[in-house]
Protein 1
Amino acid sequence: MDLDDQLHQEDHHDPIQEGLNAVNHRLIRPSFLKSLSPSRLPSQAASDSSLSPKEALHEARDSFSHHQRSHSKLSITFEGSIDELEYASILTLELSPDGDIPNVAQCISEKLEARFLDAHHAYAKMASERNFQTFSHGHQDLVLAVDFNYFGTRMVTASSDHRLKVWDRKDDSWNLVDSWRGHDAEIVDVKWNGPFMGEVLGSIAEDGRFKLWQEDVTEVPASSRRFKLITNIGSDTRAPFMSLDFKNILQDTWVALVTRDGRLTVYEPLDQSNLSEWNLIAQKWVCEIPPDRQEEVGFKVCFHREKLPCWTSIMAGLDRKALSLAVAAMHNVQVFRTDKAKRFYLAAELKGARQVIRDIAWANGSMRGYDVIATASKDGAIRVYELTTPQSTKKTLTANVSAASTAADNMVSPRLRGPRSNPPSGIGAGLAGASRVNDNAQDSEQHPGRVRHVVKMVAELTQHHGAVWRVAFSQMGDLLVSTGDDGAIRTWKKAVNNKWLEYAEIDAARDR
């Protein structure tokens, strides 16, 4: 008889172990947690001390394994936190004189159920105080985009019915300010333009137009004339725009657009005090081969919104006023920066997605010393990347030649795209690699203010059941929110062990 069989036979005759096995069988999928509503319990990401039922069982097993059967009582202590609720439970079990526990499974299970139900009721009470607010939006078709202004006091909705609606929050309710027909096709994205440029919003639609709207407070609310059209820019490639984003530094503003065929353009106003005329400052194909018309595409633009870039990048030579733009292009993400001559260059490339990327978010927090970017993919995964900038630019360039060297061309005039040529092999590949190293080593000298980043994927979160559609960071950049085809809103936090864990989950369909 080998050692495993011997241990299994000993466990089989041990009444305490048998009782623990019964507890494990009952709590491994606790049925009493399945029916809890409106929200499921947060996981251990709340703190390292928080315990799920399964972890509590492991603690109980450890206590039993070190228990002396001569004792008359056994006490097990559970401590942890659920959201803002701290809890502590002590389970006391009576032992028979010989140390056996006849009903250990039932006793522990009932006590654990009671403790976790008490904790859940307190958590559900807090959640009910911050419940979702629902109201009738009045659109005649699907709402495809929603955006809040900087202060969270205004909301704009865009729909397939070609209309835009602006709402004001007052006394915990949303009141309609104005509704108007904005495009001649379904509107796919809409954004507010920062807090310092007045009440201005931008929209894009399947008609291939980017439009900028400015509020005229002299017009009567709900007159369909309160927001005036001040800018109307068409797509050069005749493909509709797919995503837009604004960047604001005090009174200065920029806008980035990307089309369904992968054409990226960046504009700035001719006069920052007048947003009616814009100047094209950069353009680039972000997808080497245009996707087929029947192929699902994924293009998204996202500016780094803070005034200054990451301080380590500035220390490495990046311009303090550099613009930072992340562009999701099908399966990859390209991160662009501007050098001291205000010319865009490719600073990093994020890979790893197995299907198209549907959303991208750039976290605030420049003083943390590195950048954090999250992506949402059709493959059901949320990927979190960290972009670091070593002080030695030359070392960084040499280490990351394969990542971004061949795509470091300036974003100037558009280039013609054709089928990809076969990569060189053998000696030719070695010579090509050596050429790239030399070019990149001189890049910062030829173009001051250009630095490269070391990219590391620090998390791949797959708890969503289905494709992930949206990701967004909190204002402080420490909390990540996501939603997808499963209809659940999930929040994620970085724990003290530097791992991204699920903090809480809300079933939006059941919590209304």
Protein 2
Amino acid sequence: MVYNQACVWSRMEALLNEWLWQEKYWLPPGIRWRDIKMKVEDGHFPLPRDLIYTLPLALAFIALRYVFERLVAVPLSRAVDVKDPIRIRAASIPKLEIFYKQNSRQPSQRELLSLGKQCGLSQRKIQTWFRHRRNQDRPSNTKKFCEASWRFVFYLFAFTAGLASLINSAWLWDHRECWRGYPKQPVAEAHYWYYILEMGFYLSLLMCVSVDVKRKDFREQVIHHIATIFLIGFSYCANYVRVGTLVMLVHDSSDFLLESAKMFHYAGWTRTCDSLFVVFALVFLYTRLVVFPSRVVHTTLVVSSEFFQPFFGYYFFNALLLVLQALHVFWAYLILRMVYKFVFSGKVERDVRSDEESEVEDEEEEPEEEGDECSWEQRKGAINSKLASLANNCVLNNLTHQRNINSRLPKAR
């Protein structure tokens, strides 16, 4: 039995060596795996099997996040007075609940008529029930605050640790040093852990993407996470570690500012939120539209060709960088549009990065017919919550909302 398992494992390893770890994919022309073997005293050489540790690390991040949000983030949200909107709970109607979960959250006109016949309710009451039910599923401000605080802590730690590990590195100041001696470049222990932690964290984000607050740029976020994971993994295996550390440092430099601004937004600290958003916008636009293309992408596309001939890894790595750059342009456009609306129109427009199914304001609540199961106190609380939300008109509304402000004003009746 043991012998058979060993044979299967050896065959799988031989298949990987034959198809996946071909030298033409990972190394420049004329370089062989045996040519880049280093002695232990020369430093740690990146090996593909090192990335196996990122999977259990991602699970550890998820567990740590669970503990952090409940023991740190939730008490912190109470300390800074994060308020959750009061929402009217939908009445218990089993047939509508089954339809909501199994068919659609927004039934069509024909489906409304069919449900009305089944439940003996008017079409308006069914529409009201579905509106209340959708609002029940919207994540609270406390949940969004906890998510933002977790990402803020990691990005701040990653940026601080990354900058500390790279401050004395030659390639941080002279990007030609990224390729001098490539691919036989030892990796320092700090840079090794920088890579492993970053990849483990992005894996955890990808695993939790279905339960996190969904935003309008959900697809772009998924593409970003996948591209980042491939970028980190491939650059590590191909020993693009030096330029890879620069890519991660550039991204971490603005991410913690965005998450901190969100935290203050959910807490209602408008002036602090506005100030942090301005700082974030400046840092983002400079690092993603100036530093990233002119320094990082330029050195991988142009400068690297001075040290070795292009190969598959060269094209694959640069393609991933260009995908990230396209996402940078997309998000920069949204930020510039928000700034333009705020400065020149004096009006804040909801941003495309808003929560797709979790806007701060609930959907518009219409007056109920007599006999509805909601009490006057519930309706009064919902109205007061909406008025308070409409008053909270800071710049970061653009980071967490999508619809135009006019669409949330109560209809004239």
Protein 3
Amino acid sequence: MGETCGNKSQMAGKIRLMTEFCSHSSLGPEARIVKQQDVHLWEVSQAYHELIAYINTVSTTIQGLRLNDGFPVSPAITRLAGIFDQLEAMIHNNPPIMVDNAASFASSIEQGNKAYRRWARSMLRGIYPMVEKAVPASKCQYVNELGQYLSGSFGNSTRIDYGTGHELSFLFFMCSLFRAQILQEEDVAASALLIFARYLKFVRRLQVIYTMESAGSHGAYSLDTFQFMPFLWGVAQLSYEAPFSPRQMLDADVMTRYRSEYLLIGSIGHVADTKMGTFAMHSCQLWSLAALSSWAKIYRSLLFMYLDEVLAHFEIMQHIRFGKLMPFSEAAEGRQMEHARLGVMSPLRRRQLELKLEEERRQQAPDQAPPKKPAPKFAPPSPDFEDSESILSAGTTNTSLTDASVHLRSPSKDDVADKHL
């Protein structure tokens, strides 16, 4: 009798634990935008503010820098970049399906190469262990969320397509790395000029090898069939001491000389390589932007375009998932949007020049003792990111990273007109 009561008590305990487990609203990131009205909730969410802060902080930091410049690369960045080497190996193990005749070839071009689905299955099996090995053991609680954002950034295996929603999932991945303090303030430039550039090169390879379709509607008025961010961040790179003007960005000689140094020119070169005809015919949006007088104006137009045509687009946002690192809950009352400060030397570029001058002085006077290094401006990571502001959080008018005002004024009528250029 006592044994029976003990069994019942043990069973009741298991049922209680299972009930508690199943009562959780989500075991990981979940889709929160299920109807058009939810887009407004997204636009006032913590995740939205964090994303815009990350985009604009990167833009401020990388202006004046080239892809092959000597920006800081931490061990964390190196480990994350190694993920793409493993994903590249999966392409070799899942080559595109060869076709025997013209009709089959036309069909494969139209529908995408089915070998992509094999690659996607391999990626899903391996991506979580890859992320786990790339982040510190103390951050293992974030592997599930980071893995979902990263796995969602390579396209859709059912439709064999790719679009700006998949690119946005990768931005969630990058932003979450800062939110979890896996990446630090000094990693901002490398997150765009190394990690995002590596991602961009990889997804372009996927698109070409597996003849992926473009997700959504893209025509002559789009910047690119698949991407958006390399144009926005590419313009930010050129916003300080650019070696050519906006009117020259479509010139063949500029593409030849600078496509490996600037995200924008690399993207324009890719468009020229994959489309036939003139830019006025196949990419009239790019052709129109080249007529603007400054890179800052182009950046503003592109940012408004991104906010309006990607982040406010229900068909894109319904597929995005939100979790602990990128919460859908409403942002703190009074929190202001952060914005980029372009046209001035970025703090990172200034520090690089200061170090260069210091090295030159040291070589001229080798017996002179080197000056003491100043203490870092940012505080050490907090063990709980939710109880402290990340480097991308609002709530301040200045940051040690940008030394710039972070209050975004409401767009005027002229601004609204500009974003439809």
